[in-house]
Amino acid sequence: MMKRIGILLTCLVLATAVLSTVVWAETAVPRSDTFLYLPLVSKPAQPPQILSFTANVPIADPGETITLSWATSHATTVTLYHLFGGALSAFWDVAPTGSMTYTISSGSRNSENFALFASNADFPYTSTSLLVPLTCPFTWFFGPAPDVCPQEAALLSASAEQQFEHGVMIWVGAEDRIYVLFDDTMYTDGWNVYEDNWQEGDPIDDPSIVPPPGFYQPQRGFGLVWREQLQVRARLGWALAPEMGGSTAVQRTSYYKYNHTYLKALDNNVWHLLPERSDWEKLIPDFVQ
Questions:
Q1: Where residue 68 falls among pLDDT bands split at 50, 70, 90?
Q2: 120, 76 contact by CB (below 8 A)
Q3: Which of 116, 133, 150 is the last residue of a domain?
């Protein structure tokens, strides 16, 4: 009897040990369908930055081909603009970091200007500009000179001038133009310019127009403009002396707009015609070539 009870106790102990081992195994070893969930941490978005924007030369010549280079960070869209007259003009969509060549127009003066814009989906654009100075291929015919390059070399030409009661007429043969300078303040335009349509063989004046004693009727191209442009005649009045011939030089500034015109006067001074025909003055230069 006691032997049977001992056998039963031994079996009970063994069964309990096996069951405990199974339970421990199921709790200690992860099941194949058990998942571990970790929180997602997003990296903060970075604003675009322009690290550099340069040209391969410190100063360029009109007509030269230059290389523009740039580097950015955190940018997905980069655009390179050429500026003309202070406004955005031609543009190129470019890589975030790279370079490109650009051929300067032979007619460009003073500087070439560019702008680089960089952006990404999370931030507005950032930008920077680049100015490439240009050499000036021409010199002014007088001094002291304006602080910008002339657009062209001085145009040398036959000329004539005539003084009037209220202004001056100037003929520039190489341009076939007649400049009229008014000294009144009745109108907003201080000067005007007309095409010279008088031809050799045309009447030089109008015999029916008789000036008061001591005054003159303008002749040839001056007379044609004076007779046909009634406002010119009314504003200038009569000529004070016959026209005088000589030579002149003409140059203009090279701004995008609002340019100045300079003409050598017969007395070796300089007529300065302000932009938009707004006004004029006579300069006394240090020298005239």
A1: very high
A2: yes
A3: 133
